[in-house]
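Let's see one such:

===
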Amino acid sequence: MARDDLIAGLRNGLERGASIEVSKQSLLNAGYSAEEVQEAVDSLHSDSVLAMQQPFRKPADSVQPSPSKVQPQNQQASVKKEGSGFFAENWKIIALVSVLVILIVLFVVVLLFRDTIASWFS
């Protein structure tokens, strides 16, 4: 029986557009044995054959987009870029850097006024 993690690795490679040979070589390079990898490839092929033999049924609730609403991919990318700015894409980094700057300023203030602050507690 083929290992599920090897089959998942092969499927992942195929979903990313790599050929079965490239995915297989990637697993071999990762240290898996050739027998295990070949068994996973054979299992994946048999699963694919079974899936191809089953009739394809379109879900009843799926809606086909009208041709007038379909945009080429490069236009979709340009629309997405127009709506997002530097702050919209990097707000987490900006927030973290701001917190870091505030903490550094507080640290410097505490170092400069440590005697005064210590006198408050004594």
